[in-house]
Amino acid sequence: MSFGQGGPPWGSGGQQQDPYGSRQDPYGAQQDPYSAQQDPYGAQQDPYGSRQGPADPFGAQGPPPPDGTPDWAALADASASRARRRRRLTVGGGVLATAAVAGLVATAIVSSQKNADGDAKSPSATASGLPGPQELPSDSTRPEPAFSSVAPPAPPNPKDFISSERKDTAPLSADTLFPGKKLTMGGRAYAKGATARTADCAPATQGGLGAVLRDNGCDQVFRVTYSREGLAVTVGVAVFGQESEARRAVAKTTRGKTVAPLMSPGVPTFCKGGPVCRYTANSYGRYAYFTATGYTSAKSVTTGDRAAYQVGDDLAEFTFRQIVRRGNAQASAAVADPAG
After folding, report:
1. Alpha carbon distance 318, 297 (integer Å)
2. Tens digit of pLDDT for each residue in 61-75?
3. Who contacts 217 (Cβ-Cβ below 8 Å, separation ≥6)?
4. What CA–CA distance (Å, rounded) separates 90 from 39?
5. Residue 99: what pLDDT?
6. Within a 10 A sphere around the Cβ of 21, how many other Cβ atoms?
7. Exposed, middle or buried, 176 (CB in 10 Å: 0-12/13-18/19+)?
8. Can you give the pLDDT at residue 234?
């Protein structure tokens, strides 16, 4: 079948009988807003298309279906195509609008940071209206805090208080040096016996130690006896005016020059006569301290006798700690009450 000029009623020569002609067809060539010639989103004007799109199925060039029924699939495709183009333009326009709004907001912020004279405000000034540091009021009448450039004095040395009788003024007695009724060292308990004090240093010594103490300025001697498991120890503390005197006295102490044992109730005589005892001598500050250790059974202490050596060492260590504690206590009191 051929379609010439006298062809079907919807051909190019039968526009008056065509139900989809240019006057009545809403999708005709003249009235269709989306036709190839009038469509603003056509192939030549579409900003998003690089090539010419398909021809409008209901434009001037496309003939209607032969049976006079509209091609609904084509209509749907055309409508979807137009909707897609609208969305692209809507999205593109939204992006441009957003950028324009952002530019306006930035301009407004910059403009709000200008003062009346056109100068920029302090960077610390914010949109909250809080003033910058230089805008805060200051009270020049209030005094500024003052800090001394002089360094604080160093804390006192505890040994200074026990090195000179001028500073060593705390109460001193046998009970302050050896408090309580017993002592424990390293888990070993020692019972405390008799105590004694003498201002004449010689009677508290034996073997010539008295002359050494007297020649170096000894002021007084304190003694105490401790016992444990058949062993007894007498500790003697000689007090001098200066540290140098105590050191000289100990340096001149030779074998046999030691403190005399102090007898105590319940403790038999020891270190008297024939038995050999162990003696020690040392000093700290203005104090010289001596020990005499022996068996209460008249047994002699021999070299390597661990039990006897342990007892003498415990009591010598305890005496040293008591002298150090005396210095610490006086130094702490001086810090707490500088005026005193």
Report:
1. 25
2. 445 555 556 666 666
3. 240, 241, 242, 245
4. 17
5. 62
6. 17
7. middle
8. 96
Q: How many residues does the chain have?
A: 340
Distance in angstroms (rounded) separating the CA atoms of residues 266 and 196? 17
The three state secondary structure string of the chain is: CCCCCCCCCCCCCCCCCCCCCCCCCCCCCCCCCCCCCCCCCCCCCCCCCCCCCCCCCCCCCCCCCCCCCCCHHHHHHHHHHHHHHHHHHHHHHHHHHHHHHHHHHHHHHHHHCECCCCCECCCCCCCCCCCCHHHCCCCCCCCCCCCCCCCCCCCCCHHHHCCECCCCCCCCCHHHHCCCCEEEECCEEEEEEEEEEECCCHHHEECCHHHHHHHCCCCEEEEEEEEECCEEEEEEEEECCEHHHHHHHHHCCCCCCEECCCCECCECCCCCCCCCCEEEEEEECCEEEEEEEEECCCCCCCCCCHHHHHHHHHHHHHHHHHHHHHHHHHHHHHHHCCCC
* Confidence label for 133 from pLDDT (cuts 50, 70 and 90): low
CB 224 within 8 A of CB 252: no
pTM of the prediction? 0.57
Rounded Cα gap, residues 85 and 174, in angstroms? 111
For the cut 70, the answer to whether the pLDDT of residue 126 exceeds it is no
Residue type at 82 in one-letter notation: R
| Contact by Cβ (8 Å): 185, 320 | no
Which of these, 185, 191, 184, 176, lies nearest to 222 by C-alpha position?
A: 176
Tokens 């004694």 sit on residue:
196
Q: What is the pLDDT of residues 292-306, one digit of tens each?
A: 999 999 899 999 899
CA distances, 38 to each of 45, 53, 60, 74, 218 (Å)? 10, 14, 11, 19, 130
What is the rounded CA–CA span in Å between residue 268 and residue 188?
21
Residue 292's φ and ψ, nearest 5 degrees, are -130, 115
Query: What tokens does 11 get?
Result: 């051909």
Amino acid at 147: F
Percent of the chain past pLDDT 70, that is, above it, reads 56
